[in-house]
Design brief:
alpha+beta; about 15% strand
């Protein structure tokens, strides 16, 4: 079981592209196809999503926006925020 989960469905070009990006970035992930997996579909509904792809890390939404705009750096930053929710942004020390 992987910490990073990609929620997809059949015949979704954006899903295929994000899957390719994740592979190119060297990330390991689990594919949850909502066409085939009713629990995954219900999870997406419960989270208020109406489209796929969606990307979750340890149960937290780490995509937050259009999949085609997601970069490796922004994804890693989002995953770090899940790991370290109280991480200092650096702004506080500048006041």
């Amino acid at each position: 079981m992987y910490d990073l989960k990609l929620y997809t469905q059949n015949k979704c070009g954006w899903c295929v592209q994000l899957e390719q990006n994740l592979s190119d970035w060297g990330l390991e992930y689990e594919i949850c196809n909502i066409t085939l997996d009713e629990d995954a579909k219900q999870f997406m509904k419960d989270k208020g999503h109406k489209t796929v792809p969606q990307l979750y890390y340890r149960g937290e939404d780490v995509m937050r926006g259009a999949s085609e705009k997601l970069t490796k750096d922004t994804l890693q930053n989002s995953m770090e925020r899940v790991e370290w929710p109280n991480i200092d942004s650096g702004v506080e020390g500048r006041i």
